[in-house]
């Protein structure tokens, strides 16, 4: 059984460990869960994701309770093609997806996941619209395919989302199917830019105040120095509480870069839009091929399928993710400045 120490990080260590445990059929013990956070231990979103992935593969689990600082997980064979996940808080739907994102490496049939509750736009997590508009187009190059259907948005601080996503097994000669036997996927060149986009969403309660339009206008204004036309999309959606969010993204020939922000009571709609745009501009100016959020999320794919990527920043998430990956797979990744490559690529 692999032993991991979570004292230097947050929930990312658990999410990556769970995914790699299922893929490699290797049990693990994680201690000091979320020890790097002010309040450690399992929160609702971590617990529900743990229970869901355990149900998927009939795993033997200990420590599956709120506040737990130690968990053991021993996976068996995948036995289901559908999962229901209940999040009774504003825990992130995107982080539930991250827990399950590696499962397609060992799927034989599509896996349907229905998440009730939680936030599509929550704190300290990628919004679902970031995942669908930025992350999924990037990992599509590995032959990865997942579809999201957001029936109801969930905004911070109450959540209340209703989301379904379908994880597909790889097809054909995809690197995902080959698991490092295929041609490595290189993220070292953006290619030409195809377009710059702003997606702004708010709850229907905020329509009279034109919150979505104001977020979008501020984001588009902040992106003007790019000297390109910006496509703007505005939407109002039903939700359990007032809330909003913005995703700005730039589509390139070989990658997508993004920046996002969520609305809060103390922050103006204009500042929310400007914040998302500034995150995108920072990523574009850095010369990176994968932005700050995608940089740590893509690492297990590079380790399993082979490849390299020029990251925006080597964050603590990046470093701790590499440590977890090495625990399960051996030294599969090496860092050279802000470039990470699979050994042998």
Q: Can you describe this structure?
A:
With 345 residues, the protein is α/β, with parallel strands linked by helices. Among the domains are: 81-178, Alpha-beta prism (UDP-n-acetylglucosamine1-carboxyvinyl-transferase, Chain); 193-285, Dihydrodipicolinate Reductase, domain 2 (2-Layer Sandwich), CATH 3.30.360.20. It has 10 helices and 16 strands. The strands form 4 sheets. The protein has a 4-stranded mixed beta sheet, with helices on one face. Strands 5-6-8-7 form a 4-stranded mixed beta sheet. The radius of gyration is 19 Å and the shape is globular. The model has no long low-confidence stretch (mean pLDDT 91).
CATH architecture of the domain at 81-178: Alpha-beta prism
Note poorly predicted spans: none
Number of strands: 16
Mean pLDDT: 91
Number of helices: 10
Shape: globular
CATH class of the domain at 81-178: Alpha Beta
| Main pleated sheet | 4 strands, mixed
Helix residue percentage: 25-40%
Summing up helix and strand content along with how strands pair, one would put the structural category as alpha/beta
Q: Please, what is the CATH homologous superfamily of the domain at 81-178?
A: RNA 3'-terminal phosphate cyclase domain
Strand and helix order: EHEHEEEHEHEEHEEHEEEHHHEHEE
Radius of gyration from the alpha-carbon trace, in angstroms: 19 Å
């Amino acid at each position: 059984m692999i032993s991991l120490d979570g004292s230097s990080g947050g929930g990312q260590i658990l999410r990556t460990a769970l995914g790699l445990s299922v893929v490699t059929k290797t049990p693990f013990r994680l201690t000091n869960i979320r020890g790097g956070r002010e309040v450690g231990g399992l929160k609702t979103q971590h617990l529900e994701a743990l229970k869901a992935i355990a149900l998927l593969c009939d795993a033997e689990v200990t420590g599956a309770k709120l506040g737990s600082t130690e968990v053991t997980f021993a996976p068996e064979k995948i036995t289901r093609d559908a999962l229901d996940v209940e999040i009774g808080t504003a825990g992130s739907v995107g982080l539930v997806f991250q827990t399950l994102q590696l499962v397609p490496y060992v799927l034989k049939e599509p896996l349907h996941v229905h998440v009730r509750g939680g936030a599509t736009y929550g704190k300290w997590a990628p919004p679902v619209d970031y995942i669908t508009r930025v992350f999924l187009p990037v990992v599509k190059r590995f032959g990865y395919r997942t579809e999201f259907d957001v029936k109801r948005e969930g905004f911070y601080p109450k959540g209340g989302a209703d989301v379904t996503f379908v994880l597909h097994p790889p097809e054909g000669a995809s690197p995902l199917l080959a698991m490092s036997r295929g041609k490595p996927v290189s993220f070292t060149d953006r290619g030409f830019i195809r377009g710059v986009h702003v997606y702004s969403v708010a709850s229907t309660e905020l329509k009279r105040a034109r919150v979505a339009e104001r977020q979008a206008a501020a984001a588009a204004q902040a992106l003007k120095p790019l000297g390109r036309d910006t496509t703007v999309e505005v939407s109002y959606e039903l939700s359990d509480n007032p809330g909003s969010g913005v995703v700005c993204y730039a589509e390139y020939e070989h990658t997508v870069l993004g920046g996002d922000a969520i609305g809060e009571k103390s922050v103006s709609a204009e500042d929310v839009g400007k914040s998302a745009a500034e995150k995108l501009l920072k990523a574009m100016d850095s010369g990176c091929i994968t932005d700050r959020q995608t940089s740590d999320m893509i690492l297990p794919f590079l380790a399993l399928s082979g490849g390299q990527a020029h990251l925006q920043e080597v964050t603590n998430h990046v470093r701790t993710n590499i440590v977890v990956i090495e625990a399960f797979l051996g030294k599969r990744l090496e860092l050279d400045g802000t470039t990470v490559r699979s050994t042998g690529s």
